Amino acid sequence: MPYIIYDLEFTVSRNTRYSSEIIDIGAVKVTEGEHGLFVSDSFHTYVRPSNKSVLSADTIQFTGITQKDIDAAPLFPEALNQFIAWMGSESYYMCSWGPDDRTKLISHCRTHQLDVAWITNHNDLQQQWSRTVRKEGKFRQLGLAQALELCGIEFDGTQHRALDDAINTAKVFMHQFDQFKLETNCAADDEGITSKVVYSSSTEDDDKDSPFGNLAHLFKTKE
């Protein structure tokens, strides 16, 4: 079955009245062919936030997404329908770099009273490969840029743009495919899932190329 490698980008807000919202969905479909794995299709859509449709300066600076991009975008329910339709009716694995994308998808679906049963066979590639690479010493998550460097692959595109990050995650996935042990699961079977802090304030050196670490630095420069 195909592998859906996807990435999300969120709004950046310091206002506690508003939680971060999905504004960018990008994905590629990785398929097994006669000569191995290859990217067979791609998907992209911007998403217009429901609570606060005007992007903050921090969001624009961090993601490069403009207000014009958002004004012409569908709201989350419509964007999600497009994404699910693109994934197709065949069984699939869903893979992301880190746990936050899955958490935010579930949170948004519950906010909009949408089913989560389509979130199936979800795997966190970052966690799996970080543990494989760093078998000794203190465990720390590898950023996507670090993972690409270890694979000898250059980052293609712009960081913090959903489709570009999904494409680069797929490169790591295909390069290290034998190292991943994909699990089967369904979000509808989970209980008590709560939203997690999306952007970490970590300043560890190992997080220097992490989008969440970069965002923390961005905040510090403005304070």
TrEMBL record:
* UniProt keyword Nuclease, yes or no: yes
Against InterPro entries, the record matches this protein to:
3-5_Exoribonuclease, ERI-1_3'hExo-like, Ribonucl_H, RNaseH-like_sf, RNaseH_sf
All residue ranges annotated as the Exonuclease domain in the record: 2-182
Organism in which the protein naturally occurs: Paenibacillus pabuli
Q: Which UniProt keywords apply?
A: Exonuclease, Hydrolase, Nuclease
- What GO MF terms are annotated? 3'-5'-RNA exonuclease activity; nucleic acid binding
Acyltransferase recorded as keyword? no
- Its protein name is Inhibitor of KinA sporulation pathway (Predicted exonuclease)
Under SUPFAM superfamilies, the record lists: Ribonuclease H-like
Q: Specify the superkingdom.
A: Bacteria
Write down the Pfam families for this protein, in alphabetical order: RNase_T
